Amino acid sequence: MAALAKGARPYQIVVWGATGFTGKILCEQMAAVYPGTCRWAMAGRNKGKLESLRVELEKIDAMCKDVPLIVADAADQTSLDRMVEQTDVVVACAGPFFMYSEGVVDASVRLGTHYCDITGETPWVKGLIRKYHDTAKARGVKLVSFCGQDSIPSDLGTWFVVDHMKKSLQRKCDKVDGVCVKAKGGFSGGTISTAIKTTELMLAAGNMKESMDPYSLDPPDSRRGSDGADLLMPVFQKELGVWAGPFPMGAVNSRVVRRSNALLGHAYGDDFKYTEMWKQGNWLGAFMTTAVLVVSFLIIRFKFLQWLFGRYIPKPGQGPSVEDRKAGFWEYCMAGVTQEEPGVQPAVVKAKVADPHDPYTSTARMALESALCLALESENLKKAGAMQGGVLTPATAMGPVLIDRLRKVGFTFDIMEPEGNE
């Protein structure tokens, strides 16, 4: 099937998996924030659900009555090709992604369409890198996973700190600790289902050891740094002066940050290190995060525990209520330390990265801005030096252009002044 020339396609963005929990929020954001901004369509396998969603969107913006609908089924590659060839960008919200979205990625590479998604499935993305990175790079196709809560705050937050060190201090970076200092929000059934199925896949394929490699997403020929195993026990984060424990998604976000550094030629620092953690009030609180993490893994790992706790686990398609989401928020502090230099003391750079929305609403907002960035900001991305093709990260594909877009819709990316200079 021949690719259509960009600019000649009916749509600039297609939302794949529009009727899922996060996909629906993304479409609501499009209707509320960007009415008439671009040519877009909603796609999924159930036409009835798509029609019902369109009726709901009309209540937000009357123009949505004309939003086109595309029926595309992950089990029907021809339908995926027909969807992908009509748009400049596909934003995928249908997980588990290893089950539903690889056909969309494959079509995107063949048909010259940029792709972004909200996955946190590092083993699946590792497979995409092996299969598609070189071809996508050669064809100028951007495949950008991790465009939601995992891992934009970590990935762009780290890029932001390192960029400040380079431009304002003329220094390289030794390490960044991404510390979740505040958060409120629940879990969706889709997230839990994906975690269960991804773990089952890793165990069945025997690649758990590979997934535990802190540099598992780096290019195969890339040099390794000195980052070790993921944080599990409590630590005292000295730059912030707080106790912290492991962050549940740190194993995902840390690998994305390291891939960004590797793709950029290890420009962050000569031996750049990244750790992600969760601020707690004391050592005991930090230790409890370890306990929660272990229990969560056991539930994900063993079916009898899933059955035992089944009544407390939301089903796929279910998630936090509108009221709960309205009360949600999150805030990271990115604490960076400059690389040691002879006769010069290391400097500490702290940045606040935050959104006054719950993680699911934030994920939808970040994915939408990522799709709009890829669809509408091509010239600005080139000027900013963004990479133009391959299996990329948010930082390497969009970097400062995406940060600017996120700031304009209420996200915070601010350098925190040193104490005493405020």
Automatic annotation (TrEMBL):
Q: Which SUPFAM superfamilies match?
A: NAD(P)-binding Rossmann-fold domains
Please list every transmembrane segment annotated in the UniProt record, as residue ranges. Answer: 283-302
In the UniProt record, does the keyword Membrane occur? yes
Looking at the record's lineage, which domain of life comes first?
Eukaryota
UniProt key word Ribonucleoprotein? no
Biological process according to GO: glycolipid biosynthetic process
* UniProt GO cellular component terms: lipid droplet; mitochondrion; plasma membrane
Q: Which UniProt keywords apply?
A: Membrane, Transmembrane, Transmembrane helix
Where in this chain does the record put each Saccharopine dehydrogenase NADP binding domain?
A: 13-142
Q: Which PANTHER family match?
A: SACCHAROPINE DEHYDROGENASE-LIKE OXIDOREDUCTASE
Give the record's family classification: Belongs to the saccharopine dehydrogenase family.
Q: What is this protein called?
A: Saccharopine dehydrogenase NADP binding domain-containing protein
